[in-house]
Design a protein that fits this description.
This protein is mainly α. It is about 65% helix and about 0% strand. The chain has one domain. It has 9 helices and no strands. It is globular.
Length: about 250
């Protein structure tokens, strides 16, 4: 919770050599965030028009996460689309200043999120927002499991290449339990939720391959970018699925 959100807690656990084991709780944190997002949308939807509410919901996401993954998305865009050599790309991604590519990337990311959230609201699919951060955090662990670090030091190295098979299996199990319970509790389409998993896996592989060609590994910024990308892909998927098959709540 302290690492992934801005939710205040009465203690500070810090980060040690075993911190990568906290990966199993990433989907749980995603669930908590999802309930906050969807809960806010559900109650505010009665008093605020969807256009404005979609902006507010995305703003809540930024506040609750401290913009952690959005910052990673911007840094990743700055580096990968600079068309420099590997070492220079890593230097650009490490630079705390936001460049043109990063600004454009974040602008379109937030724009897509706002537009997709708007259509989620007008189609009365608010409860599906709960799953968005769950998949986003789960995607980070999946990517860390199949990847290696692009550099020797970095925050992302806590997880990248450190996720064991047992840890990954436990994370998958917890994620499946969460998806199942929430699907049945909120009467969401169980089939629609689980069909998304292969789409998520395919998206992760494509992004990973693209990044590997650039820097031959992953960084913490890329993990953040993957989380944000999967969230946008999931919202798009929900709307497309609803258009083809009609989701009922």
């Amino acid at each position: 919770m302290q690492f992934l959100t801005t939710i205040p807690l009465p203690f500070n656990t810090g980060i040690d050599t075993n911190f990568h084991k906290s990966a199993v709780y990433f989907p749980v944190v995603g669930l908590i965030l999802g309930l906050i997002y969807a809960g806010s949308a559900f109650f505010l939807n009665r008093i605020i028009e969807p256009a404005l509410l979609s902006v507010i919901i995305v703003f809540i996401q930024v506040i609750m996460t401290g913009g952690l993954h959005i910052d990673g998305f911007g840094d990743t865009a700055d580096g990968l689309f600079s068309y420099r050599d590997r070492e220079r790309i890593l230097e650009i991604m490490k630079d705390p200043r936001l460049g043109t590519n990063g600004f454009i990337g974040i602008f379109f990311l937030l724009t897509f999120k706002i537009i997709l959230t708007y259509y989620i609201l007008i189609h009365s699919l608010v409860l599906y927002i709960v799953f968005m951060p769950v998949f986003g955090r789960f995607a980070q662990i999946c990517t860390g499991f199949i990847s290696k670090p692009a550099k020797e030091n970095g925050m992302g190295n806590i997880f990248i290449g450190k996720i064991s098979k047992g840890l990954f299996t436990a994370t998958c199990t917890i994620t499946i339990i969460i998806l199942t319970i929430i699907s049945f509790s909120f009467k969401c389409s169980y089939m629609a939720i689980f069909i998304f998993i292969p789409f998520m896996a395919f998206s992760i592989i494509l992004i990973r391959q693209f990044v590997y060609k650039k820097i031959n590994g992953l960084t913490g910024d890329v993990l953040g970018a993957i989380s944000e990308s999967i969230e946008v892909i999931f919202l798009s998927y929900v709307l497309i699925y609803n258009m083809l098959f009609t989701l009922k709540l």
